[in-house]
Amino acid sequence: MMGKFPEHFLWGGAVAANQAEGAYLKDGKGLSTPDLQPQGIFGAITPRVTGDCGIKDVAIDFYHRYPEDIALFAEMGFKCLRTLIAWTRIFPQGDEDMPNEAGLAFYDRLFDEMAKYGIQPLITLSHYEMPYGLTQKYGGWGSRETIVFFERYARTVFERYKHKVKHWLTFNEINMSLHAPFTGIGLPEYSDKSTIYQAIHHQLVASAKAVKACHEIVPGGKIGNMLLGGLLYPLTCRPEDVLETQRQNRDWLFFGDVQARGYYPAYMKRFFRENGIQVAITAEDRQALRETIDFISFSYYMSGCVTTDEAQNNTARANILNMVPNSHLDRSEWGWQIDPIGLRYLLNMLYDRYQRPLFIVENGLGAKDRIEADGSINDDYRINYLRPFGAGGRSDRRWRGGDGLHQLGAYRSG
C-alpha cells in the first residue's frame, strides 16, 4: 500500500521562462537563442520580421500575469514551482559588466509572490536558453569565454536571491546538447563531434563553477544538475543488444557521472580516443569539476529499446530521441511510449549509481486539450496517465496525442 509523502516532500509543477513568460524584449531583455527558433523546431533559426508576433513572444504572458498564475498553482496544492531565470533579462547580450536591474526586479516580484503562498522556488539557471549575442560574438559554448560570462550571471543571481531561493539547477536536460546543439550549446547543427564535446566540456566546467558559487553564496542552498532521463532497455536478451544498450545509456549518464563524481569516467576517455574526438581539458578544468552537485534531477517521459538489428532500428521514432518501440507498452499519438514502471526502474538506477537525493522535475502527457463551451477541459486521459498502472506496466486506456506538456515535480530528500 502506498504511504503518505514525507512532511517536507516538495510537490509541484514547472514552467520555463522561454516557454511561458512572453515579453521577449520587455524591460531591457535581450534576444535569446529560443527567441530565434520557430515553434517546435530544435536548432532552426528564423530571422525576426518587423511586426511579426511568434508564439514565444507572448506565450501565456506569465511576465505580466504571474500573480494570478501563482494563485492557481497554490489552489492545486503546490509546495514547489520550478522555473527559469531568463539569462537575457539579467545580461541582455551575455557579456555586460553590469546586470539589468529591471530584469532582476521582475524575479524579486515573482519570488515574493510565491512566498505569499508558501511555494518554494526551484530555479534553473539555463533552460534551453542563452543570450543570442554570445552565439554571434563568441560562438556560444564553443568558447571558453562563455564560462566566465555564465559564472558572472550565476553569482549575480545567487547574491540577489540568496535569501529567497534555496534550490537551484544549472542546465536543463544537459545531455540534449548531443541531439540539438543549437538548443543546448549555441552551436550550428552541423558541428562535428569534437566541437560539440568541447562545448559540452565548457558547459560542464561552468556548471561546476556555479555549484561552487552557490555553496559559497547561498546560506543552506542546494544545487543540482538536470538530465533528460533517456532510459533504454535491450530489445532482446541477445548479448549484442545488452552491450549496445549499456553503451547508449552511457551517452546520457556520462553527464551525471561528471557532475556527481567530479571527473571524466574511463569509458568516456576511451570513447574520445576510439572516435578521434579531441577535447582540451586543462588542469584548472579538472580542479573545477571536483565541485559536485547536491542532488540529481531529471525529466522522464518515456523509455525505449535498443537493438543491433538494423531492420528493427528502422522502426525507431519519437521526437528527437529515436527509440525502437517496445511492443509491451502503449504510446501516445506522438509515439511517446507510456512506461510507469520505467520511472521506478530509472529512480533505482540513478540512486544506485549516485547515492544522491533524487528530484523529478519534469514529466507528464502531451495532449490536444479541447476547451468545452463552459471553459472547462475534461482531461481524464491525463488523470489516467498519472494514475498507477498494474504490475504488467500496460493499460487498456487509449491516449490522445497533442502539443502541450503537463509537468509536475517531486523531491525526495534521501
TrEMBL record:
Keywords: Glycosidase, Hydrolase. It comes from the Bacteria. The active site is at E362 (nucleophile). SUPFAM superfamilies: (Trans)glycosidases (SSF51445). One of its GO terms (biological process) is carbohydrate catabolic process. One of its GO terms (cellular component) is cytosol. One of its GO terms (molecular function) is beta-glucosidase activity. PANTHER family: 6-PHOSPHO-BETA-GLUCOSIDASE ASCB-RELATED, GLYCOSYL HYDROLASE. Belongs to the glycosyl hydrolase 1 family. This is Putative cryptic phospho-beta-glucosidase B.
